[in-house]
């Protein structure tokens, strides 16, 4: 599925399910919760070329651990179809362009390499496939976002 405007497409509330497989430890896990993409304050919203704040929260079950988990990112429009994702400390994460319905990004964090493939399955479903490798990491994660509103 093609997307005209990545940032505007993502705005709203989504359910989020993420499965995790740690190949080093042989551990499997699951995150279940919600993800919200909210436009920035007046004058900086997605519609006028600006930003969106991303928050996910839910429950993580990983090995013997069960507990709350959360993550926040900032989405900043670079062009009409491309956004840049930033960590909350302002550091760059990855770019995202859903124009063709499929996008691959790579993020290097020290010696770790994060490969992320994002696919728009429909107007109400987006999948992310993560492959993370490095000296101390070797895991896969598959996230499924389903639009609530």
Identify the notable features of this structure and list them briefly.
mainly beta; 3% helix; single chain; ten-stranded antiparallel β-sheet; 149 residues
Topology:
Blueprint: H1 6-10, E1 12-22, E2 27-39, E3 51-62, E4 65-77, E5 82-87, E6 92-97, E7 102-109, E8 112-122, E9 125-133, E10 138-147
Antiparallel strand pairs: 1-2, 1-10, 2-3, 3-4, 4-5, 5-6, 7-8, 8-9, 9-10
Please describe what this structure looks like.
With 149 residues, the protein is mostly beta strands. Helices cover 3% and strands 66% of the residues. The protein is built from 1 helix and 10 strands. The chain starts with 5 loop residues before the first helix and ends with a strand.
């Amino acid at each position: 599925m093609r997307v005209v405007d990545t940032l505007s497409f993502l705005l709203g509330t989504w359910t989020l399910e993420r499965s995790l497989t740690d190949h080093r430890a042989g551990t499997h896990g699951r995150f279940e919760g919600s993800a919200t993409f909210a436009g920035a304050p007046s004058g900086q919203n997605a519609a006028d070329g600006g930003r969106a704040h991303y928050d996910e929260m839910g429950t993580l079950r990983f090995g013997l651990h069960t507990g709350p988990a959360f993550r926040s990112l900032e989405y900043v429009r670079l062009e009409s179809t491309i956004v840049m994702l930033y960590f909350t400390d302002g550091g760059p994460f990855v770019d995202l362009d859903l124009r063709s319905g499929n996008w691959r990004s790579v993020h290097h964090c020290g010696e770790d390499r994060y490969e992320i493939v994002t696919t728009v399955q429909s107007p109400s479903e987006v999948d992310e496939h993560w492959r993370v490798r490095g000296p101390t990491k070797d895991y896969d994660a598959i996230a499924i976002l389903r639009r609530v509103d």
